[in-house]
Amino acid sequence: MRILWFNWRDIKHPDAGGAEVFTHEIMRRLVKKYDYDVTLFTAQIPNGIAHEIVDGITIIRNGGKYSVYNKAKVYYKKYKNNYDFIIDEINTRPFLTPRFVNNKHILAIFHQLAREFWFYETFFPLNYIGYYFLERRWLSYYQEIPTITISDSSKEDLKALGFKKVLMIPQGLSVIPLDKVPQKETNPTLVFLGRLKKAKLPDHAIDAFSLIKKEIPDTKMWIIGDGYMLRELKKRFNLKDLTFYGYVQNEIKYRLLSKAHLILVPAVREGWGIVVTESNAMGTPAVGYNVPGLRDSIKDNETGILVKENTPYSLAKSAISLLKDRNLLLRFSSNALAFSKQFSWDDSAKAFDKIIKNVF
């Protein structure tokens, strides 16, 4: 089975996130375990080569952030006979394959609606055009296309837009969960993990930390991740016991997660919230905003807390309630660790392969 897979970024892109991890982990297993031939067409990366093979996946890079979509169309028209079917992965802007792919099956992958992202990550007037017009118009072409998603939240969003064939696969996990809740830091320790961009609301997490310190003065916080807000956040928040780690290797990331007591997860919305499950695998529960995606990855009052209001104050209040109740925090930590053990990329790839064979 020869797949041509369109996505705006690949795993080596400097802005790669959870969606790109998902894509790569699924693709490499389809190649290795299920004998697929997979070609990923994606955007160029700084100092990156135009054609390479990574984990058995053929990666072709052409075009930039905006031009990759037209470049993909040109590539398809030239080489369409080399492929059996097309995967169109939608991240804000789709490739609109239903408009130019004929006589071949299309499978769409959809992590989350953009919705509020338009107002956080784009500027006027594009934010209003995107929110009120573009997204709905773009996605209308996919209503009859079989579409994979990873959370009930995204499934309901798609059905509300008229999607007829929404298929679910379980979220994967790139780390083996610990056997038991590990020894934590002596002082109460919070962590924020993710791209430092407006839609992730890292400033809300730090605002919450400053409120928590007023109640629990010896609390500290680690910010893990890089992004365009890093310099601004360092300049804006000169707080004691606040450490910016920037980008770190996975080994360091998981070690820090295992030592933290809580992860704070404010966000505009998520497809799932893989940082929650990664933290859970290290025995660390989450306190997060009650938004799509996080409603799926956080089991409220069991593996973490979904706050009553999506504000730094409410985030801080819920975190304080756990930090001051060691028995409750330990119970949430144990529940979070147990919950994480049901996720694996092998199971995700198996479900993906089954969908392809059943649908096509």
Lay out the secondary structure:
Layout: E1 2-6, H1 18-34, E2 37-42, E3 51-54, E4 57-61, H2 68-79, E5 85-90, E6 105-110, H3 117-121, H4 126-140, E7 147-149, H5 152-160, E8 166-168, E9 189-193, H6 202-215, E10 220-224, H7 230-236, E11 242-246, H8 250-259, E12 262-265, H9 274-281, E13 286-288, H10 294-297, E14 304-306, H11 312-323, H12 326-340, H13 345-359
Parallel strand pairs: 1-2, 1-5, 2-4, 5-6, 6-7, 7-8, 9-10, 9-12, 10-11, 12-13, 13-14
Antiparallel strand pairs: 3-4
Helix pairs in contact: 1-13, 6-11, 9-12
Features:
360 residues; alpha/beta; Rossmann fold; eight-stranded mixed beta sheet; 40% helix
Brief overview:
By secondary structure, the chain is of the alpha/beta class. The protein is built from 13 helices and 14 strands. The termini are close together.
Describe the structure.
The structure is a single chain. With 360 residues, the protein is α/β, with parallel strands linked by helices. The chain folds into 2 domains: 187 residues, Rossmann fold (3-Layer(aba) Sandwich); 152 residues, 3-Layer(aba) Sandwich (Rossmann fold), CATH 3.40.50.2000. Helices cover 40% and strands 18% of the residues. It has 13 helices and 14 strands. The protein has an 8-stranded mixed sheet, with helices on both faces. Strands 11-10-9-12-13-14 form a 6-stranded parallel sheet, with helices on both faces. The longest helix is centred in the N-terminal third of the chain and has 17 residues. It is globular, with a radius of gyration of 21 Å. The N and C termini lie close together (11 Å). 46% of the residues are buried. The mean pLDDT is 94.
